[in-house]
Here is the input.
Amino acid sequence: MHMSHPPRVRVAVAGASGYAGGEVLRLLLAHPHVEIGALTAGSNAGELLGSLQPHLVPLADRVLDETSVATLAGHDVVVLALPHGQSGPLAAQLGDLDDSVVVIDCGADFRLADAQVWERFYGSDHAGTWPYGLPELPGQRDLLAGARRVAVPGCYPTISTLTIAPAVAAGLVTPDIVVVAASGTSGAGKAAKPHLLGSEVMGSMTAYGVGGVHRHTPEITQNLGGLTDAQVKVSFTPLLAPMPRGILATVTAPLAGPLTAAEAHDVYAKAYADEPFIHLLAPGQWPQTGSVVGSNAVHLQVTVDEAAGRLVAVGAVDNLAKGTAGAAVQCLNLALGYDETTGLSTVGVAP
Ligand SMILES: NC(=O)C1=CN([C@@H]2O[C@H](COP(=O)(O)OP(=O)(O)OC[C@H]3O[C@@H](n4cnc5c(N)ncnc54)[C@H](OP(=O)(O)O)[C@@H]3O)[C@@H](O)[C@H]2O)C=CC1
Ligand SMILES: CC(=O)N[C@@H](CCC(=O)OP(=O)(O)O)C(=O)O
Here is the structure.
């Protein structure tokens, strides 16, 4: 489908001083149809972007505005990269201003459909539900084409969902899913946190959010629940790994019946055959975060643990790229009718 659009769209980024906002800008600087408009922040409003994001050289002299409807008005697209709970009220005001604006929220506010589940995991009022920005889920790409509002998935839900989705959709497993996923520290954002000081993180790994309490558990469950009539259960354990970027997720589930590793690989190959960003590795190769850093690619592998009777799948993603900002740009492309891959690469930075 071709939709009419101006040659270059003006994009504002709220939360430009943060990790997600910075990565959105890094990608948009390479996007041929985008002109970068207002850049806003919270406590850093008034500062030069170059003092906070020195890698974004072409934008070094831009001054950060305060985050308000007034500063975000007058753009074709507004990307929100703010802490949860901030985007709900702001998006409501932006909607009042102009409903034709594309608003892409990197935060969690509009991801969950069930208000009670939202309140249980986030402890605040539910803002609403927007089209979910994971085009690789069946039927989702059509909902995102031409959308005016997009909820970008969380980084763990992106990789956890993509890693096991073909097995759930094809009924290869009973959906009693166990996810153990290690994330780089940028997943926690830039705001200082005592457990994320260099001395605490370097040379050490830890589990956190253990026992079904991490707020991404219901998001993964919601995604997988859309793929099967069976009741989906998800046990999710996040780990913090001593690296700046990347998530490596190991996802396992009981086999529903006899299955070989080659058959499982074949199901994944068929499911993702047309997906530009999903790269199923050759049998015997295993995903590594180092291969996807800086790219919008997802690397996957799947096999069968015969003795345990479980399917074992492993996925790697850059939490800031396909895990957030890359997904935001992919959805911007779909919303505006550009080729979905515009401005995005599958080539990682290695070593
Ligand atoms: N990091 C990741 O891997 C992922 C992040 N996300 C989501 O993206 C969003 C941003 O995360 P991230 O970039 O990591 O976080 P950061 O802490 O790095 O950045 C937060 C940004 O929001 C701004 N901000 C904070 N409070 C306010 C406020 N009250 N009013 C206006 N602006 C404010 C900050 O400005 P200032 O510098 O002035 O404080 C900063 O620009 C979150 O919702 C997060 O869940 C989603 C997936 C993955
Ligand atoms: C390492 C680390 O702390 N990661 C973050 C997840 C970041 C993310 O993607 O989540 P949202 O967009 O839903 O905030 C966490 O576990 O809270």
